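Figure 2 data, in text form.
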Amino acid sequence: MKKLLSAVLAALIVSAGVMPVYAAAESAETTPSTEGSENTEGEEGEEENKEPPPTEEEQKMIDYIPSLWFTSVATDISEVLANGAVYINTSAIEGENSTIGFSAYIKDEYKCIWSIEAKARVTCPDIVFRNVRLPSEDGLTNAYDQTAPFDYVYWGSYKDIDESNGKRRNFMSISLYLYQDYDNRLKVTGDTTDQYPFTLFDLLVDKNAAPGSYKLSYITEDIPETDIFTNEDLPSRVSKRWREKKAEGAIPFAADTKILVSDRQLGDVDGDRTIDSADASKVLESYASVVNGGESGFSTAEEIAADVNGDGQVDASDASQILSFYAELGNGGTGTISEFIAKQD
């Protein structure tokens, strides 16, 4: 009877698709394993299809992000500080407004660029973009060779309504791209892309612009507001990584330019149209008050004028520079205080 029950139980187990323990053990002992051989073949296939590591030059291109920035030169109403900030004296403006010229530069060390799309803005509502143009229109050399088989395409917008929030957005747009020959990148004129500017423009400053510290910057928070594209003749791994970087939000490194606005000359803190020891004394008094936990005692216009080195702080070093410049003038020196400080550096 026991033998019959065992036979029935075994039949039920087999019909249910379950292998008895003793049978599984026996199968494991007698059946040769193919797992190892399958893995080996897979690994060999992966080895054959594995892309070799990037060369040193390719890795540099993969890691590289181009740079964008602006420069300006001194005018009757502006000075350029050693750190690149532009100081504007609105009291020097004759009439309702005046313009300051700027140049836009790009550094593309590996000359990877196929096209550039850029938007820039200034945060002061009383300073707007005007006359966006190519360097050749001013008789200057272009950063990119216009004799190559492609066309420059560019445009400028001065004011625009951002419909998403109803606020006015003061910006300029620049676009440089291949128009005819899509198989080639932009052709660099000089040895490097930053040897010449790629765009020129003016900032129109209202005489009544409010004193303050503002920014001229590229719009980088929304790709493709400011973006750079590479062409497909780069090594595939480089193009692929650049696309990945853009997807991750990596855009060109774009440096801001500080725009400082006051109603007096830089260093003329008291606004009497001279730069002398009285201005240095006011700076020291203000600095002493702040150090001791008090207020600066300066209006915005005075504070902007007192920060002669443009580091964002009004302190003893500013007072020292003002005194040194005053002594220089007493010895027959000429020029502006920003030029004097630049010479010290």
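Caption note: The chain has three domains: 2-49, 65-262, 277-344.
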